[in-house]
From TrEMBL:
SUPFAM superfamilies for this protein: Porins
UniProt KW keywords: Signal
Signal peptide as annotated in the record: 1-24
Pfam families per the UniProt record, alphabetical: Porin_O_P (PF07396)
Gene3D superfamilies in alphabetical order: Porin
Protein's name in the database: Pyrophosphate-specific outer membrane porin OprO
Amino acid sequence: MIRKHFAGFAASAMALAISAQAFAGTVTTDGADIVIKTKGGLEVGTTDKAFSFKLGGRLQADYSRFDGFYTVNGDTADAGYFRRAFLELGGIAFSDWAYQINYDFSHNAGGDNRSEDGYFDEASIAYIGFAPVTIKMGRFDPDFGLEKATSSKWVTAQERTAAYDLADYVNSHNGGMGIQVSGNYGASLYGSAGITANDPANRDEDGDSIKQFNARGVFAPMHEAGNVLHFGVNYATRDLSDTSFDGRIRSRLGIRGVSTDGGQDAGGNGNRLVLGGANNTPVDTYDTDSTWGLEAAFAAGPFSIQSEYLTREVQAKAANREDIDADGYYVQVAYTLTGEARDYKLGKFDKIKPANKGIGAWEVFYRYDNLSVEDDNGAFAAIDDVEAKVHNLGVNWYANEAVKLSGYYVKSKVDNATNANGDDDGDGMVFRAQYVF
């Protein structure tokens, strides 16, 4: 029912956008004059900037082909799916309030077990009257990590680093609600702290939601496009002592098609790596679940290099359990062959704007992901640790500011785990066509 109502709203909004461009005439208002912009979606606002709204969205159509460890039997499989299909509405009200509503029709952008009809990726209200401090409330992803801070529209590789899979709760709302305070001091310092009721399906025995605390701090002494020096630290923690939960630490190792959330994947032949943990972990098994993260980046003209490191500890509570420890990192280098630099602002990278409208901007990149988990419980009691290494090599073509075509090759190697066929390595390719408005 929500989907039908939202679809009706979207259709009405689009009709308004078409009507606004189809009819000429004079627009009158009882307040400040109105400015209408149609480049990159539809944006309407008053000249005094007290009120505005912008209608936009993103469409990402993916196709992937993979074999080896990525399938149960080791044979080749493929998957074609919409990675994201967002309709986005945001703006300003009464000068001091901002709002953002993002609805995902693809059902592939969130975590597991999303409604097959789509879901709200974000639905938030923020008070901005204390600028440069912002207080945000509602449903949104908490701050954790440089790649997560960068919009999915403009991340370098189609899929973010596999190292994030070691602690997938840290930068996802998982259907929960939260409040976050963030702010900056000039363009060099940024910080945020927030509390999220993460994943409402996980509650304690009294029915109280599990709370998660996040904090992120960034120092960027160099903070202009093509001239970036960036350092950051992140922390997230939650209490798991009084709840049962899905404790599996899993990774698709850069190939979403092995198991998408919206179907159109490899089906029963898709193989998703389990590095540790167990599903349906009972109450009083573990206690505090904490994750630290470090981030660094440098950019000089069309060249950029960035890296993040994560370490997670799930502390055991039951006498017959051991702590679960996870560590991961990535290193990524990218170069724009046509000379453009990546935009950067307030602790995150942004888009590449093509200088030549005829040939667009061409970018090549390489990323190495490394992730490992030590879990001496259950099925992993006889294994020191499970480790995965993933190589990602790709190219992006920014045809213009709205269209981006991408492709990358992924090669993975796993230690102490195989598929049913005995394969411990695999290959795959992912292609994406993206339109942003």
